[in-house]
Amino acid sequence: QQASGSMQAMQDSSNAKAMAASAPRDPALKPYFADFGGKAGLKALMEDFMANLMADPRTQPFFAHVDRTRIKHELVDQFCVILDGPCTYTGASMAQAHRGLGIKRADFNALVEDLQKAMNKHNIPFRAQNKLLAKLAPMHRDIVTKQ
Ligand code: HEM
Q: Exposed (0-12), middle (13-18) or buried (19+): which is 6, by Cβ within 10 Å?
């Protein structure tokens, strides 16, 4: 009884960690939320980001048959939380969301390029871009599952 209780506690705490890892809020990034144009800016950014992903033959196959409207919504909330905006991320952990997709490091890099292209189009200052990218980069550990 005691053992199963503490096992449950361990699972709860590792779930909480997985959730946090998918959208780590960083108060130090708050100044950059405005550079992204707030939540409205993030919504506009995600339209172009997803358009880039669909126009890119390297990433298109991954997104062709999923609910892109829902993913854009989750991405807005996730980036908003990372930038310490007034949002809550309710999507899956990065490990859960990308499990079984067979994403390689090259696919990950392609997605980052498509994001950078979208951020440039939206005139997001490079410093703000780099602050966000620094938070996304370590997520490769949960997202890249194939050599
Ligand atoms: C730092 C990089 C990435 C971030 C921050 C990210 C973020 C997200 C988020 C927030 C979701 C929605 C989670 C949910 O379902 O609740 C998602 C889903 C998804 N992501 Fe990523 N992602 C990243 C990299 C990638 C890469 C490299 C690919 C493929 C090239 C990819 C393909 C997908 C697909 C196909 C889904 C939908 C899965 C499904 O609905 O079954 N992601 N991602």
A: exposed
Q: Which domain holds residue 42?
A: 2-143
> Which has the closest alpha carbon to 93: 42, 134, 141?
141
- 139 Cα nearest atom in ligand 1: 1
Q: 29 CA distance to ligand 1 centroid (A)?
A: 22
Distance 74 CA to ligand 1 centre (A): 9
Task: Give the pLDDT confidence of 16-37 residue by residue, as tens digits.
Answer: 444 445 678 899 999 999 999 9
Alpha helix locations (H) across 28-125? 30-35, 38-55, 60-63, 68-82, 94-98, 105-121
pLDDT tens digits for range 113-137: 999 999 999 999 999 999 999 999 9
> In this structure, what token pair is assigned to residue 69?
């409207």
What is the domain count for the chain?
Answer: 1
CATH of the domain at 56: 1.10.490.10
Token output for 135: 């938070």
To test the ligand 1 pocket, which listed residue (143, 144, 145, 146) has its Cβ within 8 A of the most ligand atoms? 143
Ligand 1 pocket member 103 (CB < 6 A): yes
